């Protein structure tokens, strides 16, 4: 079986497995305390956001793009499966480090092909939302669906501005998957004031705007991730960008280019927090994206008193990258995280909440309502998980409050449910890895969405 066939097979089976709540509930993994402190050097997998874009943009381009360092995970496989269904030629091979590398020949000016059936995006919100922007400018009709979790996530925020540009969605007014999009080659440009800071929303509009008549612009209430703005010029698309806003002129096209994907700072955050919580630990996390829109977690750890430093070492394309070094310190303190910071660390809030549970004082994360519409209701899950630890935590509107307990002693026999959410699976596993007692995690395998080798890496650092 070729790597492409393997990827397609795993995409289908990942979606089927995660959609079965009975199977998920029965899966439990015992996480035992690390025998030694974390020590040494680790490289986390390729950035998930950049990997998605490298696949999707290459598929849109004329010619064959070479991509390397691509994250091999369930979410990225969903994007690979989607572009193959739409006519792109994907020839990727597994590298010794676990990443994917190879060529993707795009459909270019011919446009995507009409797929034989619905495109299943699995658990990947990035795949489905960016695909809406990709498909909006072509006169084909494509049904988009996903697993149980993805079918609960909001899609109207993407569909609404694309409808203003001329795309059509069915059922009319649909807020969740499954839905069908019918594109048009007569897209009209828009100037859109986004109600949320969302890189997925911004990217969908910009991708549609590349083929629209006129200049399309997006204005956000706070800056979101800017990987799209950094990557598109490499594919020959001029983008005007500033913090909180971006625009693209219509009538452009994408041409092939090379993309090297750096390490994922969201994955690095879990390693960093593990070292911050396990006494006597010192680690270096190499070749990580140090994009300012992605390292908010490091700034929060600094304010909490953690010993963390970021050292730039180069770049991968337009993405700055470097090494994150973390050493354990005995005393952590609470801090306040304001709304304008949230977009730069929203995926790391669960694990930062766990660190806050060990800090002195009350930590407040402001304006985190977006957590309610992630892979699961992460805000509710954080509150439930911290209550199991005996930590007082509560929500006031969209603000999360955590009253830390320095010297926190974790009860024995704890069982956490990841709810099929990779970030929750990794967060609650740190309770076991860095604590005094084992914990059990239901559906720990959800980590394959972003960091399949997470457990192996963290245990290797403790040998």
UniProtKB/TrEMBL annotation:
<feature type="binding site">
    <location>
        <position position="200"/>
    </location>
    <ligand>
        <name>3-phosphoshikimate</name>
    </ligand>
</feature>
<keyword id="KW-0028">Amino-acid biosynthesis</keyword>
<feature type="binding site">
    <location>
        <position position="198"/>
    </location>
    <ligand>
        <name>3-phosphoshikimate</name>
    </ligand>
</feature>
<feature type="active site" description="Proton acceptor">
    <location>
        <position position="347"/>
    </location>
</feature>
<feature type="binding site">
    <location>
        <position position="125"/>
    </location>
    <ligand>
        <name>phosphoenolpyruvate</name>
    </ligand>
</feature>
<feature type="binding site">
    <location>
        <position position="423"/>
    </location>
    <ligand>
        <name>phosphoenolpyruvate</name>
    </ligand>
</feature>
<keyword id="KW-0808">Transferase</keyword>
<dbReference type="GO" id="GO:0009073">
    <property type="term" value="P:aromatic amino acid family biosynthetic process"/>
</dbReference>
<comment type="pathway">
    <text>Metabolic intermediate biosynthesis; chorismate biosynthesis; chorismate from D-erythrose 4-phosphate and phosphoenolpyruvate: step 6/7.</text>
</comment>
<feature type="binding site">
    <location>
        <position position="200"/>
    </location>
    <ligand>
        <name>phosphoenolpyruvate</name>
    </ligand>
</feature>
<feature type="binding site">
    <location>
        <position position="378"/>
    </location>
    <ligand>
        <name>phosphoenolpyruvate</name>
    </ligand>
</feature>
<feature type="binding site">
    <location>
        <position position="153"/>
    </location>
    <ligand>
        <name>phosphoenolpyruvate</name>
    </ligand>
</feature>
<feature type="binding site">
    <location>
        <position position="48"/>
    </location>
    <ligand>
        <name>phosphoenolpyruvate</name>
    </ligand>
</feature>
<keyword id="KW-0057">Aromatic amino acid biosynthesis</keyword>
<keyword id="KW-0963">Cytoplasm</keyword>
<dbReference type="InterPro" id="IPR036968">
    <property type="entry name" value="Enolpyruvate_Tfrase_sf"/>
</dbReference>
<dbReference type="InterPro" id="IPR013792">
    <property type="entry name" value="RNA3'P_cycl/enolpyr_Trfase_a/b"/>
</dbReference>
<feature type="binding site">
    <location>
        <position position="48"/>
    </location>
    <ligand>
        <name>3-phosphoshikimate</name>
    </ligand>
</feature>
<feature type="domain" description="Enolpyruvate transferase">
    <location>
        <begin position="37"/>
        <end position="456"/>
    </location>
</feature>
<comment type="subunit">
    <text>Monomer.</text>
</comment>
<dbReference type="GO" id="GO:0008652">
    <property type="term" value="P:amino acid biosynthetic process"/>
</dbReference>
<dbReference type="InterPro" id="IPR001986">
    <property type="entry name" value="Enolpyruvate_Tfrase_dom"/>
</dbReference>
<dbReference type="GO" id="GO:0003866">
    <property type="term" value="F:3-phosphoshikimate 1-carboxyvinyltransferase activity"/>
</dbReference>
<feature type="binding site">
    <location>
        <position position="347"/>
    </location>
    <ligand>
        <name>3-phosphoshikimate</name>
    </ligand>
</feature>
<feature type="binding site">
    <location>
        <position position="53"/>
    </location>
    <ligand>
        <name>3-phosphoshikimate</name>
    </ligand>
</feature>
<comment type="similarity">
    <text>Belongs to the EPSP synthase family.</text>
</comment>
<dbReference type="InterPro" id="IPR006264">
    <property type="entry name" value="EPSP_synthase"/>
</dbReference>
<dbReference type="GO" id="GO:0005737">
    <property type="term" value="C:cytoplasm"/>
</dbReference>
<comment type="function">
    <text>Catalyzes the transfer of the enolpyruvyl moiety of phosphoenolpyruvate (PEP) to the 5-hydroxyl of shikimate-3-phosphate (S3P) to produce enolpyruvyl shikimate-3-phosphate and inorganic phosphate.</text>
</comment>
<dbReference type="Pfam" id="PF00275">
    <property type="entry name" value="EPSP_synthase"/>
</dbReference>
<feature type="binding site">
    <location>
        <position position="49"/>
    </location>
    <ligand>
        <name>3-phosphoshikimate</name>
    </ligand>
</feature>
<dbReference type="InterPro" id="IPR023193">
    <property type="entry name" value="EPSP_synthase_CS"/>
</dbReference>
<feature type="binding site">
    <location>
        <position position="374"/>
    </location>
    <ligand>
        <name>3-phosphoshikimate</name>
    </ligand>
</feature>
<protein>
    <recommendedName>
        <fullName>3-phosphoshikimate 1-carboxyvinyltransferase</fullName>
        <ecNumber>2.5.1.19</ecNumber>
    </recommendedName>
</protein>
<dbReference type="GO" id="GO:0009423">
    <property type="term" value="P:chorismate biosynthetic process"/>
</dbReference>
């Amino acid at each position: 079986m070729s790597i492409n066939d393997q990827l397609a097979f795993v995409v289908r089976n990942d979606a089927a497995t995660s959609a079965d709540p009975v199977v998920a509930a029965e899966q439990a993994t015992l996480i035992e305390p690390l025998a030694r402190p974390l020590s040494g050097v680790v490289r986390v997998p390729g950035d998930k956001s950049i990997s998605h874009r490298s696949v999707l943009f290459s598929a849109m381009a004329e010619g064959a793009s070479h991509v390397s360092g691509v994250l091999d995970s369930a979410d990225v496989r969903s994007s690979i499966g989607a572009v193959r269904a739409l006519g792109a030629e994907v020839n990727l091979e597994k590298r010794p480090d676990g990443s994917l590398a190879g060529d993707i020949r795009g459909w270019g000016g011919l446009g995507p092909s009409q797929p034989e059936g619905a495109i299943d995006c699995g658990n990947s919100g990035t795949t489905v939302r960016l695909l809406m922007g990709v498909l909006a400018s072509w006169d084909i009709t494509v049904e988009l669906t996903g697993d149980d979790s993805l079918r609960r996530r909001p899609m109207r925020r993407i569909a609404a501005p694309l409808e203003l540009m001329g795309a059509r969605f069915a059922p009319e007014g649909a807020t969740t998957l499954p839905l069908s999009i019918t594109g048009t080659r007569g897209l009209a440009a828009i100037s859109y004031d986004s109600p949320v800071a969302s890189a997925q929303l911004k990217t969908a509009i910009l991708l549609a705007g590349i083929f629209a008549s006129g200049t399309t612009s997006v204005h956000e209430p706070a800056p979101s991730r800017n990987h799209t703005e950094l990557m598109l010029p490499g594919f020959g698309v001029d983008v005007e960008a500033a913090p909180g806003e971006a625009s693209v002129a219509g009538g452009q096209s994408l041409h092939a280019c090379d993309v090297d994907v750096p390490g994922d700072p969201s994955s690095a955050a879990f390693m960093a927090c593990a070292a911050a919580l396990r006494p006597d630990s010192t680690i270096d996390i190499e070749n990580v994206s140090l994009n300012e829109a992605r390292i908010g977690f490091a700034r929060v750890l600094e304010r909490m008193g953690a010993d963390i430093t970021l050292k730039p070492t180069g770049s991968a394309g337009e993405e700055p990258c470097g090494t994150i070094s973390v050493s354990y310190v005995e005393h952590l303190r609470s801090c306040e995280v304001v709304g304008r910071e949230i977009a730069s660390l929203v995926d790391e809030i669960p694990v930062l909440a766990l660190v806050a549970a060990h800090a002195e004082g009350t930590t407040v994360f402001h304006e985190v309502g977006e957590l309610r519409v992630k892979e699961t209701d992460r805000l509710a899950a954080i509150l439930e998980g911290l209550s199991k630890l005996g930590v007082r935590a509560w929500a006031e509107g969209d603000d999360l409050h955590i009253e830390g307990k320095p010297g926190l002693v974790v009860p024995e026999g704890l069982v956490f449910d990841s709810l099929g959410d990779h970030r929750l699976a990794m967060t609650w596993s740190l309770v076991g890895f860095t604590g005094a007692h084992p914990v059990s995690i239901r559906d720990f395998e959800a980590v394959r969405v972003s960091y399949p080798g997470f457990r192996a890496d963290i245990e290797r650092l403790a040998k």
